[in-house]
Write a structure and sequence with these properties.
By secondary structure, the chain is an alpha+beta fold. The protein has 2 domains: about 1-40, no CATH class; about 40-130, GMP Synthetase, Chain A, domain 3. It has helices spanning about 40-65, 85, 110-120, 125-130; strands at about 5, 15-20, 25, 70-80, 95-105. The strands form 2 sheets. Strands 1-2-3 form a 3-stranded antiparallel β-sheet, with no helix packed on it. The chain is globular and about 55 Å long. The two termini are about 20 Å apart. The mean pLDDT is about 85.
């Protein structure tokens, strides 16, 4: 299990402190949700995890194949699907993350198609698509 510790106290408002190993980061909500916008939102962290995992996976694969991938860029957008879009019962919500790839390099059409396929195999995307079980323990 990875050692991520997140804490917040009454005086911090919507700001949470995230400790990951030797690194400390802040998470906040936008002013629209009564945060102060002093850091990325929790959803920003999920989206950045997916995006960074995607580009790293693409570069690792291209390097193994000795393909000329110079740059991989991923643009991510997230929205909640309506009940009719997701074919779920009323009140159930699903999130759609749209992922747009931009690949730069002297790549063939076949290489580009393969990289698109590989982009969906990064560990973070696999985890999100499989669903996550969260077990909470109170101490």
């Amino acid at each position: 299990m990875s050692g991520v510790v997140v804490s917040a106290d009454r005086s911090s408002g919507m700001v949470a402190t995230v400790k990951m190993g030797n690194q400390v980061n802040l998470i906040d909500e936008s002013g629209a949700i009564t945060g102060e916008d002093t850091g990325p939102t929790p959803m920003d962290y999920i989206m950045s995890a997916l995006g960074s995992c995607t580009v790293i996976t693409l570069h690792m694969y291209a390097q193994r194949k000795n393909w000329p991938l110079e740059r991989a860029e991923v643009t991510l957008e997230q929205r909640t699907l309506s009940t009719t879009e997701s074919a779920l019962a009323a009140g159930d919500k699903r999130t759609l993350i749209s992922k747009t790839l931009q690949l730069t390099g002297d790549l063939t059409a076949e290489q580009i198609a393969r990289l698109k396929d590989i982009s969906s195999r990064c560990p973070i995307q696999k985890t999100l698509e499989a669903g996550v079980v969260v077990q909470t323990t109170l101490i």
